[in-house]
């Protein structure tokens, strides 16, 4: 129903009006409290259950730790890996509620959650991106077969919202996925790294000229996918790559 409303009403006001006809203003997670289309159909009480990533966390991959850790540190995972991005940060801890909403958005095309999800990403990343000026926002690409199957790329939609909020241009025509890789979900860390090692390439013969790039994806677990993307961009001439994702999994 949302897809039909989106096609009929490209304007935000009309889309919200049509959505309210099909979906009552009820939180689509708990189905109890009130929530509007502008809130992404997630109510205020449910929002309070979210856990945002806060220090202390690994300076390299953003993995949060509990306890009183003072000063900066790099986790043992990052010390054991060759990661090609400079740093990775995430908005939310990948707990049950956050992951259910992301999965419904990603796999069930529950696009009504998009204002909520993009809002979380923007609220957490905007200051960081302002303090570290960037030239381009690039979403992690899907393979064309997967994108046709899913009908959209969630990373691209989130990247577009972040671009609109920050004024940093988005480029979704530079990086491409050339290998239809297996899903990373059930793979070991070693298998994940091998699965995406040659999965990405630059369109045609394009070259970068020292740009500072922000890679956007939905979930960060081991960093295999974003590291493979970062290596491709650095090899093409980027000066720096950092990563922002909605959620951080693989917690200690």
Descriptive notes:
By secondary structure, the protein is of the alpha/beta class. The protein has a domain at 59-91 and 125-248: Rossmann fold, CATH 3.40.50. It has ten helices and six strands, in the order ααααβααβααβαββαβ. It has a four-stranded parallel sheet. It has a two-stranded antiparallel ribbon with strand order 3-4. β5 (212-220), α10 (224-235) and β6 form a beta-alpha-beta unit. The longest helix has 18 residues, at 114-131. It is globular and about 50 Å long. The N and C termini lie far apart (40 Å). Mean pLDDT is 88; it is low at 1-10.
**Poorly predicted tracts of residues:** 1-10
As laid out across the biggest beta sheet, the strand order is: 1-6-5-2
Top-tier CATH class of the domain at 59-91 and 125-248: Alpha Beta
Largest sheet: 4 strands, parallel
Write the element-wise H/E pattern from the N-terminal end onward.
HHHHEHHEHHEHEEHE
- What is CATH's topology name of the domain at 59-91 and 125-248? Rossmann fold
State the total count of DSSP E strands. Answer: 6
Structural class: alpha/beta
Specify the helix fraction band.
Answer: 25-40%
Radius of gyration: 18 Å
The coarse silhouette is globular
- The CATH architecture classification of the domain at 59-91 and 125-248 is 3-Layer(aba) Sandwich
What would a concise description of this structure say?
The protein contains 10 helices and 6 strands. With 252 residues, it is of the alpha/beta class.
Give the topology, please.
Layout: H1 2-8, H2 12-22, H3 44-47, H4 76-80, E1 87-93, H5 96-107, H6 114-131, E2 136-139, H7 144-150, H8 154-166, E3 175-177, H9 189-195, E4 200-202, E5 212-220, H10 224-235, E6 240-248
Parallel strand pairs: 1-6, 2-5, 5-6
Antiparallel strand pairs: 3-4
């Amino acid at each position: 129903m949302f897809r039909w409303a989106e096609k009929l009403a490209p304007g935000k006001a009309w889309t919200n009006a049509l959505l309210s006809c099909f979906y009552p203003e009820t939180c689509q997670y708990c189905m109890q409290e009130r929530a509007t289309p502008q809130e992404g159909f997630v109510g205020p009480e449910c929002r309070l259950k979210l856990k945002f990533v806060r220090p202390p966390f690994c300076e390299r991959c953003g993995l949060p730790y509990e306890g009183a850790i003072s000063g900066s540190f790099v986790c043992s995972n990052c010390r054991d890996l060759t990661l090609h991005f400079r740093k990775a940060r995430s908005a939310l801890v990948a707990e049950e509620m956050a992951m259910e909403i992301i999965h419904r958005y990603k796999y069930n095309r529950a696009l009504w959650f998009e204002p909520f999800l993009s809002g979380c990403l923007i609220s957490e990343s905007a200051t960081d991106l302002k303090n570290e000026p960037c030239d381009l926002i690039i979403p992690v690409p899907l393979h064309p077969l997967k994108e046709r199957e899913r009908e959209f790329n969630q990373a691209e939609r989130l990247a577009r919202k972040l671009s609109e909020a920050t004024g940093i241009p988005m480029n979704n025509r530079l990086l491409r996925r050339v290998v239809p890789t297996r899903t990373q979900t059930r793979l070991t860390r070693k298998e994940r790294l091998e699965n995406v090692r040659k999965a990405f390439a630059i369109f045609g013969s394009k070259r970068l000229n020292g740009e500072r790039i922000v890679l956007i994806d939905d979930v960060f677990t081991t960093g295999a996918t974003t590291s493979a993307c970062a290596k491709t961009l650095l090899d093409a001439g980027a000066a720096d790559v950092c990563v922002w994702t909605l959620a951080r999994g693989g917690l200690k």
